[in-house]
Amino acid sequence: MGKIISFANQKGGVGKTTSCVNIAASLGVLGFKVLIIDLDPQGNATSGVGISKKLLKATTKELLTGEIPVEQIIQETPYKNLHVIPTNTALAGAEFELFDIDEPEFRIKKGLESVKDNYDYILIDCPPSLGMLTINAFTASDGVIVPMQCEFYALEGLSQLMVTINRIKRMYNPELSITGILITMYNGRLLLSMQVIAELDKHYSDKIFRTKVSRNVKLTEAPSFGKPTYYHDKSSKGSKEYLEVAKELATRI
């Protein structure tokens, strides 16, 4: 049975989509069958695995509304063991349509029932907000990975996210938990980085991924080629770090 993991942080620009795409690709390289669900209307996870947003006939929007069977929405990517449910800007309007549907919080969970067992991991790239789309993802998920930078504002955002996770756990999904906190854009030479990590250690020491993802040019280049970093430059530091994170994830869940 596939494990469903959401990548979430209401603060934008923290490497959420980069982490989702690259961990998914790395898990595929390791031999796991992986499905990405692009739940962010910006569609960066879609283009990040080489799928054109302009040519889509079925997207995450149809998964939420149930208009099209999920089997007809899933697309193969050019990369090993990696599939995607793509999206485009049409998803932005779906959040409002959900309010007219019975049990709107469970649309993704219900939509995935027929394909969940086909994958080892289903990774959901959430939007940078805590609205109905993210609630849907959390209701369907076994765990949440929180990518975050070493900034004090990020600590405040993490507290807010924890409140939401606990609320979803209480109301809709008692099995939901934090799979891990992933440090991104890391610079170990900065005192601030050390201070933020020390603060995280006080409260979440067992949740922090051992591997930290450094700032890396190849990580920022790869999306423009529609490639995960492993397929852009497998020898790059970013590619190696995400491969280590994927290995660690495979031992956690």
Please sum up the structure shown.
With 253 residues, the chain is of the alpha/beta class. It contains 11 helices and 7 strands. The chain has helices at residues 16-29, 44-48, 60-65, 91-97, 107-111, 132-140, 152-171, 191-204, 217-221, 229-232, 237-252; strands at residues 3-7, 34-38, 75-76, 82-85, 121-125, 143-148, 177-183.
- By CATH, the superfamily comes out as P-loop containing nucleotide triphosphate hydrolases
**CATH topology title:** Rossmann fold
Biggest sheet layout: 7 strands, mixed
Q: What's the number of domains?
A: 1
CATH class: Alpha Beta
- Helical stretch count? 11
Based on the structure given, which CATH architecture is correct? 3-Layer(aba) Sandwich
Amount of beta strand? 5-15%
End-to-end separation in angstroms reads 12 Å
User: What integer value in Å does the Rg equal?
Assistant: 17 Å
